[in-house]
Design a protein that fits this description.
This protein is an alpha+beta fold. It is 40% helix and 13% strand. The protein has one domain. Helix 1 crosses helix 5. About 8% of the residues have low confidence.
Length: 263
């Protein structure tokens, strides 16, 4: 009878197996890239303080943005062969013989690739290509650069011998850039010409909310000021995730992941 008036415990916004994978992956990333680094590295935000130049979509502002993202991820931009491509008309080829031919249709449900990572070329530099449409959207540009540079951290620096795109997304969180990638994960598009949505990355919207909540929990930031940089939908998922984490501290980072199914 009295149970009718008991307060319902907050549930986790993502399924259990995905949660366990994410927690295990997060711990692995912290071990690989340093706990002190995670605790002390300032986050990167879409502010003039962190991007102190007028962004105008030019090649110069693209390179300046890439320098900032690379520095945040502890990568020397000089080790990267960074270039732009137009997916609608161009063949992408690197010195190792990889090629990509594309011809997308505006009405196609298949999204354009935002960026490409090919590993090291014959000159010993990491080939990273960014679709030039990203220059129109600085937040998406940062998110795309962060994801492609995360490939360098995992594959290029030989932390992994195989590609894992979800883990690559999660790496951006550990390096303090997750706000950008989370915000770009799902966007509604409403204008006089188009109504719909756009997506970016491999983690789903709710998974980004949980990933950022884990990040804040690890840094002991229960109500971080930086959540005002999140879009309303991501902020909502972050708060739900945070409520679950603080209600279940005995579970977080302590349960084992069963690799039966990973979303």
């Amino acid at each position: 009878m009295f149970g009718l008036f008991s307060k319902k415990q907050p549930g986790c916004p993502i399924d259990t197996n995905t949660r366990l994978w994410m927690e295990q992956a997060f711990v692995w990333l912290v071990q690989e890239f340093g706990q002190d680094n995670l605790l002390t590295k300032p986050m990167l935000f879409p502010t003039t303080e962190h991007f102190p130049f007028p962004y105008d979509g030019s090649l110069d502002s693209f390179i300046q943005t890439a320098h900032i993202v690379a520095r945040q991820m502890e990568i020397d931009l000089e080790t990267i062969n960074l270039d732009l491509y137009n997916e609608s008309v161009q063949e992408i080829k690197n010195d190792l013989g990889f090629s990509l031919f594309t011809q997308p249709d505006e009405t196609s449900e298949t999204p354009l690739t935002a960026g490409l990572y090919f590993g090291k070329n014959a000159a010993g530099k990491f080939d990273v290509f960014i679709e030039k449409y990203n220059l129109q959207d600085p937040e998406k540009l940062v998110a795309t650069l962060a994801h492609e540079f995360a490939h360098i951290k995992l594959l290029g620096e030989k932390q992994l011998s195989f590609n894992d795109e979800s883990l690559t997304d999660l790496t951006t969180v550990v390096f303090g850039i997750g706000v950008f990638n989370a915000n770009c994960a799902f966007r509604e598009i409403k204008n006089f010409r188009v109504r719909g949505h756009s997506t970016l990355g491999y983690l789903k919207q709710r998974e980004w909310g949980y990933a950022l909540a884990l990040y804040a929990y690890f840094r002991q930031e229960k109500n971080p000021d930086w959540i005002h940089h999140l879009t309303p939908n991501i902020r909502s998922d972050f708060k739900k995730s945070t409520s679950f984490i603080y209600t279940n501290p005995d579970k977080i980072f302590k349960e084992k992941y069963n690799p039966g199914k990973q979303s």
